[in-house]
Design goal:
Blueprint lengths: L6 E11 L2 E11 L9 E4 H9 L4 E6 L5 E6 L1 E5 L1 E5 L19
Parallel strand pairs: 1-4
Antiparallel strand pairs: 1-2, 2-3, 4-5, 6-7
């Protein structure tokens, strides 16, 4: 497997703030090129900080056979505040959206 990104995101935890569903924590893995590390939990601020320092993130999904499947690149969107998104609506939507990641 080639390296997909600096870090890989396999799950997300949400909280409700002022009626909005906001991502608060993520299961993050280091992309080792030929393997994926065990996950650690990062806050949204930690992910935002890493992205602003040039680190890359991609979503990943565990297949039934135990292998990881590559998802989408995680990008920043700013609409009054920073959001993390993988979809094409990132420029206009004021919400986090990491398409189809499971909650933890």
């Amino acid at each position: 497997m080639e390296k997909w990104a600096d870090y890989l995101v396999s799950a997300v935890r949400h909280q409700v703030d002022s009626g909005k569903r906001i991502a608060s924590h993520f299961k993050i893995h280091s992309d080792k090129g030929s393997s994926v590390s065990e996950s650690t939990t990062w806050t949204k601020d930690e992910v935002l900080n890493a992205i602003t320092k040039g680190k890359t993130f991609m979503t990943i999904y565990r297949e039934n056979n135990g292998n990881w499947r590559r998802g989408s690149i995680v990008l920043l969107s700013k609409v009054e505040e920073f959001f993390l998104r993988t979809d094409s609506e990132r420029a206009a939507a004021a919400a986090d959206n990491l398409t189809e990641l499971p909650d933890f």
